[in-house]
Amino acid sequence: MTLEAIKYKVGQLQILDQLLLPAESKYIPIASVKDGWDAIYKMQVRGAPAIAIVGCLSLVVEIYDKQYDTKHALQSEVVQHLQYLVTSRPTAVNLKLAADEVKTLAENLLANETVNVEGMKHQIIKSIEQMLEKDIQDNRAIGENGANALLKGVDRPLKLLTHCNTGSLATAGYGTALGVIRSVNVRNLLEHVYCTETRPYNQGARLTAYELVHDKLPATLITDSMVAALLNSTKVDAIIVGADRVAANGDTANKIGTYQLAVVAKHHDVPFYVAAPFTSIDVAIQDGSRIKIEERPEQELTHIGGQRIAAPGIGCWNPAFDVTPAELITGIITERGVLKPSELAEKVRPK
Ligand SMILES: CSC[C@H]1O[C@H](OP(=O)(O)O)[C@H](O)[C@@H]1O
């Protein structure tokens, strides 16, 4: 069992094909921006941070061995590839923000006369390679900040619930919401974790359960429809989920089903936390109504493992995400601390 979603070394990129998990653990090569785009769209790699890292690293493998006559030729190819990559999936903001940063770096290097074309390529590659380690550092900080917040004033082990997959498989490592659960466990203060199956792509049943079993954490899988009954019968200390895009006012887009978890949490007075790095916060969007929600193929709903489960001829609606309004969110756990949704805009000034 391996939890390493992304393998990268000196211009060589491989990803763990998450469509095959948990039955098969197979790495596939990503040798071009086209490969990167396809793997992201088909969700062979998924999870907002991992999408950004694999998208940008696919650009690295595309340009790594190429010679460019001019800095301008390099810059325009980089911009063209990034504009293509961000069309792979619309909701998660991490790839868009990373692409903007690389574009800005390329523009600055183009204008910098002391840097030649090879130096420019080298710096672009270096800045993207650093995304891997930075993401792991951020996730470990999110883990600690989240564990501190959840255990504040509590002197007994916790029962936690999470939705979708926000672990090592969704990031460069350790995870966001699942990272917080790991940090609580490291302190021997995790009594139990419940994870939802997360229909229709089943990230919870296939990927989060895979990580929880791998880590030997005390865990139980439930269907998405069992959450209210669980909160009604069991003392769950908090619900903790990830994020694909957090708007300036704190409204959060995350895996479909997150909003109803927040509504149930409110009804049962259970704290509801979002764990997300600043690379998932989009202050250019004022509130959640402006977030584009991806709609995915109906086959994801009508078939499981290639087997049709829905009656032929039925119509489907398959939004991949929904938006949880800020007022239902207790706190946003970031690498820089736990923020109330209302504090976000102040903390994240647009660059
Ligand atoms: C840290 S992962 C964040 C987020 O991404 C997932 O979406 P998907 O599996 O469709 O890429 C899910 O919404 C997670 O909460």
Automatic annotation (TrEMBL):
SUPFAM superfamilies: NagB/RpiA/CoA transferase-like. Pfam families: IF-2B (PF01008). Pathway: Amino-acid biosynthesis; L-methionine biosynthesis via salvage pathway; L-methionine from S-methyl-5-thio-alpha-D-ribose 1-phosphate: step 1/6. The record marks C164 as: Transition state stabilizer. Gene3D superfamilies: translation initiation factor eif-2b, domain 1, Translation initiation factor eif-2b, domain 2. Keywords: Amino-acid biosynthesis, Cytoplasm, Isomerase, Methionine biosynthesis, Nucleus. The active site is at D244 (proton donor). It catalyses: 5-(methylsulfanyl)-alpha-D-ribose 1-phosphate = 5-(methylsulfanyl)-D-ribulose 1-phosphate. Its EC number is 5.3.1.23. GO terms for biological process: L-methionine salvage from methylthioadenosine. It comes from the Eukaryota. One of its GO terms (molecular function) is S-methyl-5-thioribose-1-phosphate isomerase activity. GO terms for cellular component: cytoplasm; nucleus. It is found in: Cytoplasm; Nucleus. The keyword Amino-acid biosynthesis applies. Catalyzes the interconversion of methylthioribose-1-phosphate (MTR-1-P) into methylthioribulose-1-phosphate (MTRu-1-P). NCBIfam families: eIF-2B_rel, PRK05720.1, salvage_mtnA. Belongs to the eIF-2B alpha/beta/delta subunits family. MtnA subfamily. This is Methylthioribose-1-phosphate isomerase.
